[in-house]
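Cast an eye over this sequence plus tokens and explain the fold to me:
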Amino acid sequence: MSSEAKAASPEKERVTARWIHRVGFRDERDFLLRVVQPGLVGLIDGTISSLAPIFAAAITSDSHTALVVGLGVALGAGISMGWSEAGSDTGEETGRGSAAVRGTITGLMTMLGSIFHTLPFIISDVHTALIVAGCVVAVELFVIAWIRKRFLHIPYGRSLLFIGSGGLISLAIGVALGAS
């Protein structure tokens, strides 16, 4: 790493620490527990769990059906995950903050994790939509791996392997069901 990059890194960390403190968090760990972790759980769940039903619907039917299934999965899973997070920990014992706030973050991120690769099915040609959705999924998996590296300090390659494996398993289930 160059001396400029080493010098810039502590300043970047100080700016991040000041921002985290200004928005009401004690430190980066507090921010991690109250915002990043619930958001990451939602994003991972939304991205991976929605692949099988959306791709199965696209393969067995058409783009419109995949779009409707994807929207249903995104909204239903967002509610389910948000409710689960809010109901699983009041935050009093663990110090993870408000259950309602964490539930909202988890639910919204679950919905976003599902919705991005659902939107390509607005394209009426299902083959084109599948290709675009596949590209969107790849971007989503890289973003999730980056977030895990940034906040959880997990090496990027290991994180990408972990997230990609889950995505591939869910996608394979969707393709197998769609082809049956």
User: Anything to note?
Assistant: Residues 31-179 form one domain.
